[in-house]
């Protein structure tokens, strides 16, 4: 069997990964605070060929932390964060992070992020108010107010994009071995949302390119398979 078929196969797998990543970006073009990803690959060499045969090996994806556009909503629980800052949220799997500032109040008064995860305060506990005590809002310093009373302050952290792994939607988690994030004191922008940083036009272009490259890898695989069949059927055995 030709060595080339393995190279073409690794290329097809790589493009399939790129297609899935781009499709997920496009699916979240309307998700507040969503940060697009880019599939990353490394060049791997086969020991079986004394290091002469190179393969494309998927190595995960990189989160793009370019800021999205902002829009005023007038909604008291909507917030936009400073560059590189993330909201800490509590899930069944531990603490995760998001820039999706479209927050809500659960029936029991817990402030929640998209998907229902509890938003954490500076003390590491979920921010929680008494629903019967009136409306709530955030101040620029991250304080959560109910009337004239301060309920707590939003727990924001600074994280480099290279330290993050996508958990699903706009929710992120730390890469294995990443350092504990530093607390951020950056001001927030109340009653404002940061849009997704995905460009639908760029995303569609990337999707088309990845699809065409995937098809080219498939054609290469078919060519190598046909060559192998020809050798087996036409070259006499000894």
List keywords for this structure.
238 residues, alpha+beta, 2 domains, 7-stranded antiparallel sheet, 18 strands, 31% strand, elongated
Written description of the protein model:
With 238 residues, this protein is α+β, with helices and mostly antiparallel strands. It folds into two domains: 4-65 and 198-234, no CATH class; 70-194, no CATH class. Helix content is 25%, strand content 31%. The chain is built from two helices and 18 strands. Strands 5, 6, 9, 13, 14, 15 and 16 form a seven-stranded antiparallel beta sheet that branches. β1 and β2 form a beta hairpin. The longest helix has 35 residues, at 200-234. Residues 44-50 have low confidence and may be disordered.
What sequence of helices (H) and strands (E) makes up the elements?
A: HEEEEEEEEEEEEEEEEEEH
Overall pLDDT? 82
Number of helices: 2
Q: Ranges with pLDDT <50 over ≥5 residues?
A: 44-50
Rg (C-alpha, Å)? 24 Å
How many structurally independent domains?
2
Number of strands: 18
> Which structural class matches the secondary elements?
alpha+beta
Proportion of residues in extended strands: 25-35%
The helicity comes to: 10-25%
Put the structure in a nutshell.
This protein is an alpha+beta fold and 238 residues long. It contains 2 helices and 18 strands. Helix 1 packs antiparallel against helix 2.
Write the layout of secondary structure elements.
Elements: H1 4-27, E1 37-45, E2 54-63, E3 70-72, E4 79-80, E5 85-91, E6 94-98, E7 104-105, E8 111-112, E9 118-119, E10 136-138, E11 143-146, E12 149-153, E13 156-158, E14 164-168, E15 171-174, E16 182-183, E17 189-190, E18 192-194, H2 200-234
Antiparallel strand pairs: 1-2, 3-18, 4-17, 5-6, 5-9, 5-13, 6-15, 7-8, 10-11, 11-12, 13-16, 14-15
